[in-house]
Design a protein that fits this description.
Number of domains: 1
Helix content: 55-70%
Strand content: under 5%
Structural class: mainly alpha
Shape: globular
CATH architecture: Up-down Bundle
Number of helices: 5
């Protein structure tokens, strides 16, 4: 079986791959007991990977909306202000994913399984915006 290179994958396929990698890290490395992850190092790694999937999705969404005028956002504030122009539901997902995966998961290293799983679910919902 031939594997596509990053250049050959669509943005949706690449984001899905990141999301699957994040889930694999959590399942195989983070360890779970009583609704908490055991190893914060892997929670941070998986959260960062899933958040990158969200950014790939947002970049593709903005490319589709802005066409030749697209320029990659440089901050979360830039993403928020630009997404706000096009879709309020995607904006809410972005803010939730930022809180759940970037701040709680990656930055603070939460051990909460519920928080991280909600973040992964929200990234999956975001995928619908670019999946054709």
């Amino acid at each position: 079986m031939l594997t596509k290179t990053r250049e050959e994958r669509t943005a949706a396929e690449e984001a899905q791959r990141y999301l699957e990698n994040a889930r694999t890290i959590l399942t195989e490395k983070a360890g779970k007991k009583d609704g908490l992850y055991a190893d914060v190092k892997y929670v941070k790694m998986a959260s960062g990977t899933a958040y990158c999937a969200a950014l790939l999705i947002l970049d593709e969404f903005l490319k589709q909306k802005e066409g030749i005028h697209f320029k990659k956002p440089t901050s979360i504030e830039d993403y928020i202000s630009r997404i706000r122009k096009y879709d309020k539901k995607l904006l809410r997902l972005l803010v939730d994913v930022y809180d759940e995966l970037h701040l709680a998961g990656y930055y603070h290293g939460t051990k909460s399984v519920n928080t991280i799983q909600l973040g992964l679910t929200n990234v999956t919902k975001m995928l619908n915006y670019i999946a054709n």
